[in-house]
Amino acid sequence: MDQTTDGLRDPRTARVARGGVRARERALAPDLARGLMLLLIVLSNTAFHLYAAEHGPSGWHPVDGSALDRAVRLIMIITLDMRVYPLFGFLFGYGMMQMFLRQTAAGTSERRAARLLYRRGFWLIVIGLLHSTLLMAGDIVGAYGVASLLLVLLFLRRRPRTQLVWAGIAAVVTVLLYSGPLWALAGGDVGAFGPAAGDPPSTREYASGTESYLDAMGTRATTGFFVTFVGGPLMLTAPQMILAFWAARRRVLEEPHRHLRLLRWTAAVAVPVGWLGALPMALAHSGIWHVPPAALSAEGTLAALRDVTGTFGGVGYVAVFALLAHHLSGRARRHPVTAAVTAVGKRSLSTYLTHSLIFAPVLAAWGLGLGAHLNSATVALFAIGVWLVTVAAAHALERAGRRGPAEAVLRRLTYGAADRRG
Prior knowledge:
By secondary structure, the protein is mainly alpha-helical. The protein has one domain. It has helices at residues 28-44, 67-79, 84-105, 110-134, 141-154, 160-177, 179-186, 203-206, 213-234, 240-249, 260-285, 301-308, 310-328, 336-346, 348-363, 376-400, 405-415, 417-421. Helix 14 packs across helix 16 (376-400). The longest helix is centred in the middle third of the chain and has 26 residues, at 260-285. The two termini are 32 Å apart. It comes from Actinomadura namibiensis. Residues 247-416 form the DUF418 domain. This is Putative membrane protein YeiB. The chain crosses the membrane at residues 32-52, 72-95, 116-134, 140-157, 164-186, 224-246, 267-288, 308-328, 349-368, 374-397. Keywords: Membrane, Transmembrane, Transmembrane helix.
């Protein structure tokens, strides 16, 4: 069996040896990457709040508005759509392996450390379902909680080379899942897959246009349950989380100076592949390239190309953020802007939930209904403003030496008494 020794025979490892990560153990690159990722996430979550806008066959982004709105959508489709989720997945998997390695280095048995990750995954599912039901149907925390349980079971204690092989297998599986529409696209049959009329607006599934909060909550609960328990297991077909396990064992983000060649090549190749893969979808959605509506649907050929290349974009962003952290290391690390963005990364769960706590009541029809009066450009400005508010709040907590509230709760639920010890 391809597992490392679990150490359970040693009585000194019969309990959890330590609590969560300590301040002196944190590295710049992972926290900086998470802080910048939260900006990309809040921007990518803007579309389903525009419930009064005219939507096209993709069902996601609106099609009406000014030239500026069209330009904003073009950029977002190329740089954000299905590129932020792989980024989130990589950083999530990286954090899982960091937690596992910290525990085992302190003397916790591998089996005990795995149990901690199981417990953390369970509580992430609970938090995610509450988040999706109460505020934001597209919550991904619960889905990653489900994925984490499966990842711990199947891949956590594998050897690094085995993890790398399985990441490659997952990449092949991803391509095979999209082989039908990709083959049709290569043959020039752009409209071969997907519903002839395209997809309905995603705002319905997210209930942003529902005026009754209780009715909206029911819709969100249904969508959130599907995203969590169907989307979570499907994440195992994507390679980024397993690849992150391998990268964390190599300390790629903690020590970017030792992996500059790898990071530079990854950024130089993966980011352009990710952007070019989404370019046809962006051009078609913008009306620059005229294609059948089916091609723009979630099952369509252009969506398949966008999704398959999304992993490249997300992993490429990780490399870019790691190189940025390397550039900012040393004195620049104490720069107030860097410190503030890093503070967000240390409180990524709290920041993620705060986005919805502001977005939903202000934009949804059951709240102030501002989403009916915004367009792609103005809601993007609103999203940047919300992120800046969370940056200021996280920086204030950092200066006060306090964790984010969601991190404090999750930490206590995960570690229990061990957190007070270590």
